[in-house]
Amino acid sequence: MSKDTLPESHDSHGTEVAAHGDPFADPGLPAHEPRRTDIDERAAKRAERQVSLLFILSMLSTVGFIASFVIFPIDKIVYIFPIGHVSALNFSLGLTLGVALFCIGAGAVHWARTLMSDHELPAERHAIEADDEVRADVIEQFKTGAAESGFGRRKMIRNTLIGSMALVPLSGVVLLRDLGPLPEDKLEHTGWKEATKAKPIQLINMNTNEPMKPEDIVVGSLSFAKPEGLEEDSHEFQVQIAKDALMLIRIAPEDIKDKESRDKGFEGILAYSKICTHVGCPISLYEQQTHHALCPCHQSTFDLADGARVIFGPAGHPLPQLKITVDEKGYLVATGDFDEPVGPSYWERSR
Ligand code: FES
User: Fold this and answer.
1) Which of 90, 113, 211, 248 could, after both became Cys, cross-link 202 (CB 3.0–4.6 A)?
2) 269 C-alpha to center of ligand 1: Å?
3) pTM for this one?
4) Distance between CA 219 and CA 255 in Å, rounded?
5) Where are the alpha helices (DSSP H) in the chain?
6) Pairing of β 301-303 and β 246-250
7) 43 near 36, Cβ under 8 Å?
8) What is the pLDDT along the chain (351 residues), one digit of tens a residue?
């Protein structure tokens, strides 16, 4: 350090000032103050019981978490002040898991603050690579720390901590239940599967909720449809519409390049699944000049005049097409299901 930066030994009037010694001297540690639990064995015992109680509460909460899965049906709604109406299952799972984790954390903090050694230990900086002597010293310090923490000596804390830590992962095991039941063949079919030639299902306009006629759909337009009987206020609506939603377009028949696709339509009206075959976003952008439909999520583009072939983007399949015709009253109807699964690919998909 330059002498210029050190304090001067004379003040501005030339009077000698007292020597300051080392201006950066280590002030040392303040005197150690023992805690109540260091000097009062009853207070230490009380703290030990409090820590154990927190770990026991954690165990009980984990058991409550598991019990919630068994007790509460998935659709049970309850009123809880001041939150309002909530799913009893979700509320109970969140509460019990939160309490279980909180109690482990609070118990550990309380243990450290009241019972573990709180002696300040200054440590000098040293080279990063430790020699054998330092390593032996670290191991010795670790053993001393373990002994001072009381982990071996305070058996009640140790056992309840091990119990609570061992139980908490069971919450994750129980959550695996939500992976089931297996979907079986549900992914292969949609709500249109009930349609037959003898008992067709009408296409219902999703905006007007009315059955659709060919004359309602002009060339260049885009409309959306759902199967007759699927009501928006039904419990299953969101699940079903995610598979059943249709995108209806009308193209001049001579502009339809794919013959099979033209045959599945009615007078140029084509009904494609609205669910993108990439990861299942609803498609809603249609360019009438090019007959391209664009998925807003990752820009997969399908040529609806050519069997909904993928012409751009990450989608792996064309959009499935639903065969449509008209019933005796002139309404558009489906007479069967899509001939392949709608939406994204999945592991067991056979087509
Ligand atoms: S979901 Fe349609 S492109 Fe990704």
Assistant:
1) 211
2) 24
3) 0.58
4) 11
5) 36-39, 41-71, 88-114, 132-149, 155-175, 237-244, 259-264
6) unpaired
7) yes
8) 444 444 444 444 444 444 556 778 878 788 888 999 999 999 999 999 999 999 999 999 999 999 999 999 988 899 999 888 999 999 999 999 999 999 999 999 999 999 998 888 777 776 777 788 888 999 999 888 888 877 878 888 889 999 999 998 888 888 887 787 887 888 889 999 999 999 999 999 999 999 999 999 999 999 999 999 999 888 889 889 999 999 999 999 999 999 999 999 999 999 999 999 999 999 989 999 999 999 999 999 999 999 999 999 999 999 999 999 999 999 999 999 998 999 998 877 766
> Any residues with CB less than 8 A from the CB of 219 and at least 6 apart, and which?
250, 251, 252, 268
Q: 268: CA distance to ligand 1 center in Å?
A: 26
- Return the DSSP state at 300: -
d(CA 277, CA 340): 11
CA of 63 to the centre of ligand 1 (A): 41
Beta carbons of 344 and 332 less than 8 angstroms apart: no
Please give all residues whose beta carbon lies within 6 A of any atom in ligand 1, as ranges. 276, 278-279, 281, 295, 297-298, 300, 313-315
Residue type, 187: L
**Secondary structure of residue 86 in the 3-state scheme:** strand
Distance 289 CA to ligand 1 centre (A): 22
DSSP 3-state of 260? helix
Kindly give, in sequence order, each residue whose CB lies less than 8 Å from that of residue 32, ignoring residues fewer than 6 positions away.
Answer: 118, 119, 120
- Distance CA(62)–CA(101), nearest Å, equals 9
Q: Are residues 332 and 324 in contact, defined by beta-carbon separation less than 8 angstroms?
A: yes
Helix (H) or strand (E) run with residue 226 in it = strand 222-227
Phi, psi (rounded to 5 degrees) for 294: -120, 130
